[in-house]
Design brief:
The chain is an alpha/beta fold. The chain folds into 2 domains: about 140 residues, Aspartate/ornithine carbamoyltransferase (Rossmann fold); about 150 residues, Rossmann fold (3-Layer(aba) Sandwich). It contains 10 helices and 9 strands. The chain is globular and about 55 Å long. The protein starts with 16 loop residues before the first helix and ends in a 9-residue tail after the last helix.
């Protein structure tokens, strides 16, 4: 593949293995840039990118900002709480006014599923989904795939178990689509109240017994309980959830020998994962954060229309 065939990145659903590998291979080049004394290239000089975050974020927002700065792009951060949104301005009017200022790309996070797609109908700029509702979080899925491939040299044939709040997780959906495209075997596990209806139709194994789910796994991706998205009745208590679905040192014995622990963050220590597991040598949680910058640099570059230019 010589060129990424899309103008936008809205999700991993529908992307082919070749397309995903093309992004990951490009990210390898940009990770080399991050290892240099001067961690900056002029690749996107002259382009203006707006970070449109309607939800709180630490890792994703800063990762995108750093990726943009490493590529020498001009960056504008939009904060709804200090904008005309507080005066009643619609999303459509907001983004059309931003585009009238001659921007090139928009990175958007929103609590409502489908907002990134909606923006593609309003704007000429390239749109990157940084998380929309419980739909998808494609760059998180890509950086997880990158991290897995970096450790094992492959994704195909590995058994990956995603544990926790599947129902509200956009990370789980992007991971499932990406892992399946890359040839991994995927299982999900959580309380029945936190598993979407007809989850099996996504081509995954579904468990409500964590010990059974973990048996023979290579990678465990632990999800945060998204309490802010829940109504009453999903869980009896956090203590019971931790007892039944928490990743503890004792449960690691169920995994394959060369196992890996992942978490998209932020971590609720002592709830979904114990501190000793989160900080263990088998944990790649901080490597995920590092790889996130390289992957987002790759995505920005591939969607920028600058692909013919070399990475200097």
């Amino acid at each position: 593949m010589k060129k990424f065939p899309y103008k936008h990145l809205l999700g991993l659903e529908g992307l082919t293995r070749e397309e995903i590998e093309f992004v990951l291979d490009t990210a390898v080049t940009f990770k080399e840039v991050l290892e240099r004394p001067i961690k900056k290239v002029p690749t996107l000089r002259g382009l203006t990118i707006v970070n449109l975050f309607y939800e709180a974020s630490t890792r994703t927002r800063i990762s995108f900002e750093l990726a943009q700065k490493r590529l020498s792009a001009d960056t504008v951060n939009f904060t709804p709480s200090s904008s005309s949104v507080k005066k009643g301005e619609t999303l459509r009017d907001t983004v059309r006014n931003l585009e009238a200022m001659k921007i090139d790309m928009v990175v958007v996070r929103h609590a409502s599923s489908g907002v990134p797609y909606f923006l593609t109908q309003c704007l000429e700029s390239s749109i990157i989904n940084a998380g929309d509702g419980a739909h998808e979080h494609p760059t998180q899925g890509l950086l997880d795939l990158y991290t897995i491939r970096e450790k094992y040299g492959k994704v195909e044939g590995l058994r990956v178990v995603i544990v926790g709040d599947i129902k509200h997780s956009r990370v789980a959906r992007s991971n499932i689509w990406g892992l399946k495209a890359m040839g991994a075997s995927v299982a999900v596990c959580g309380p029945s109240t936190l598993l979407p209806v007809e989850m099996e139709k996504m081509g995954v194994e579904v468990y409500t017994d964590l010990n059974k789910a973990l048996w023979g796994a290579d990678v465990v991706n632990v999800l945060r309980l998204q309490l802010e998205r829940m109504e009453r009745g999903f869980l009896p208590t956090l203590r019971e959830y931790s007892r039944l679905f928490g990743i503890t040192k004792e449960r690691l014995a169920l995994l394959n020998k060369n196992y890996t622990i992942m978490h998209p963050g932020p971590i609720n220590r002592g709830v979904e994962i114990t501190p000793e597991v989160a900080d263990s040598p088998e944990s790649v949680i901080l490597a995920q954060v590092t790889n996130g910058v390289a992957v987002r640099m790759a995505v920005l570059y591939l969607l920028s229309g600058q692909q013919e230019e070399a990475v200097a």
